[in-house]
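Lab notebook page, bench 4
Experiment: in silico fold of construct C2
Operator: M.H.
Input chain length: 197 residues
Purpose: comparison with the prior construct
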Amino acid sequence: MAVRRGNTKSEHFEWITNRDLVDSAHMLMGSIDLDPASSTFANEYVGATEFYTPTDDGLNDKEWHGKVYCFPPSQPYFWDKKQDRWKVTRGLSPTLTSGHALWFRTMKRKWLAGEFEQGIYFTNYVDCIMYNQDMFDFPMCIMKSRPTLIRHYYADDSIEKKNTGVCLIVYMQPLDRVAEATEEFVEIYSEKGRILV
C-alpha cells in the first residue's frame, strides 16, 4: 500500500532496491548469497540466501561470503573508540563519515581479503564518489535515469514507490575470471547507463 509522506527523517524508513535492479544482480552473479545491510522485509525483494539486519551489524561484526549485494543504509556513522566500532549517529562528531562511503570501504576491504567471491555495490548517494575515488578502479554503471525505489516505513509497515537521485552500480568481480565477468557486467548493465571500466 502506498502512502503520501511529508519530509521524513531517513531513520524512519529503509530504501529497498526495485525488482529490475535486483534481477540484474541475480542475472550477473547467478544468485545473491548475502545482503549484509538488509532486513526481513527488504529481503522479500532482494532474495538473498542470507542477510544481516541492523542488529546483526554486518558492517562491524560479520564475515561476508559468496556473492554479495550491498545497498547501504543512508545514515552517517561515527567511530566509537570505547566500543571499537562504527556506529550510526544523528549528531555531530569529528569522525563523522558517510554511511554509503563507509560500507563501500568495508566491502572493498573484505573483497580484497578474499572473504567473498564477487559483489554488487548499489548507491543512490552519488556524493560517495568524493569519499571513495577508488570506486573508479572497478567496473561501474552511472545510471542514465533516476530509478524508482521502494521506501519501507517502520512505523506502520507501509511502502511507497519513490524516485531517487543519481545512482551508481559498482561491480567487484571474481578474481579468477575478471575479464569474462567484466564483459558480463557491461552486457547486462549497459542499457541502464554509462559504463566505466
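Observations: Residues 65 and 116 are 4 Å apart (CA to CA). Helices lie at 19-29, 40-46, 99-112, 128-131, 178-189.
Next step: discuss at group meeting.
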